[in-house]
Amino acid sequence: MVCQVFIGEKVPERTAIRRVLVVDDSRLQRRILAASLKKFGYDISEAGTGAEALELCKAMSPDLIISDWIMPGMNGLEFCREFRRLPREAYGYFILLTSKSDKSDIASGLDAGADDFLTKPVNSDELRARIAAGDRILRMERELNEKNRLIQSTLEELQSVYDALDKDLQEARHLQQSLVSERYRDLGPAEVSLILRSSGHVGGDLVGTYPINGQRIGLYGIDVSGHGISSALMTARLAGYLSPSHEQNIAMRKTDTGLFVPRPPSETISDLNQLILNELETEHYFTLLLADVDLSSGHVVFAQAGHPCPALQKANGQVEMKGSGGLPVGLIDGANYEDTEFTMSAGDRLMIHSDGVTECADPEGRILDDGGLSKILRSLHQTKGVSCLESLIWRMSEYAGDQKFSDDVSAILLEFKTG
């Protein structure tokens, strides 16, 4: 077997091939190949058998192997198979030296894991070209590995950031839920129940109550545009404007005598609209329903600002929607709002809800709407308080075919007692 010596420059600094293992049972052929490769600056190791070469591969992890096919004991094909089974951080390029030219032999070599072939006697120019091709492949493989390592490192950092953010959002969710401090209150002549379910960690819905005097109570439902952190912060700000403290509540005014009295809901919403437009630098707008309820007489005065019409369910189970809509708060300067009045009787109940209820969609995209809500309320006529609201959520889940809603869901249920 003859291997011709070739002349060339030193190995470029960016080459991926540094360590080369020459495997041949002929010492002469190994020395000829090794001498040729050393002129290019490669770090050369030699092995006379496949078994010896395999041990060297375990110890020094060569970048390139040039192995004879025909060897006693473990031949080049068997050695290649065993080499591919070794655990490695980087790919090793494998060239088989052979006098075989049959296509089935070449296929066998490729199946065993060989990357390329050189026909003996080896031509120096061809050897150099085959090594250059292998080097390009290894450089691409190592560049890809480096990019993958960078991606993995970035993903780990992002996961760490996400975990910290998720923890903060979980805490923010608890804080937002705490704004609905009481899910149920017995008011004497009536009972009020509240529910708040955000579609994400935090949301833009909020429901609440505040005392007006010993016989009157204020109710509100808010739905801020969006569902994220900024929406949740906006709901917290709005909750402050409708605080149980009369001094801070925009829906109350102080008389000359120092007493606090309620303002008409429409007037309160109108002023709130101007406040949002003139003083708060925000792109958010929100819908609002604000109600003033006289518990002694059952008289209700409310105003809507784009919020869904509340559902009044009479003692006999029949449901009717009240109000006419109105413009959301924070959209149009000088928007006007109207008060709507009606009187509730013993056994009647009023539901104030966000559009996450009526716009709940089934798998075909058909929304629940007022008609669907009325049907659910009639079926839950005998179910009271928080249980009624929880049952409403369950019915909505059945309708949507999913327990996770695409929008926030909130509601207040005011129920006058029967006696």
UniProtKB/TrEMBL annotation:
GO terms for biological process: phosphorelay signal transduction system. Residues 19-135 form the Response regulatory domain. The modification 4-aspartylphosphate is found at residue 68. GO terms for molecular function: phosphatase activity. The keyword Phosphoprotein applies. Keywords: Coiled coil, Hydrolase, Phosphoprotein. PROSITE patterns: RESPONSE_REGULATORY (PS50110). Residues 137-175 form a coiled coil. SUPFAM superfamilies: CheY-like. It holds the Pfam family SpoIIE. InterPro entries: Bact_Sigma-Reg, CheY-like_superfamily, PPM-type-like_dom_sf, PPM-type_phosphatase-like_dom, Sig_transdc_resp-reg_receiver. It comes from the Bacteria. This is Transcriptional regulatory protein YycF. It comes from Roseovarius albus.
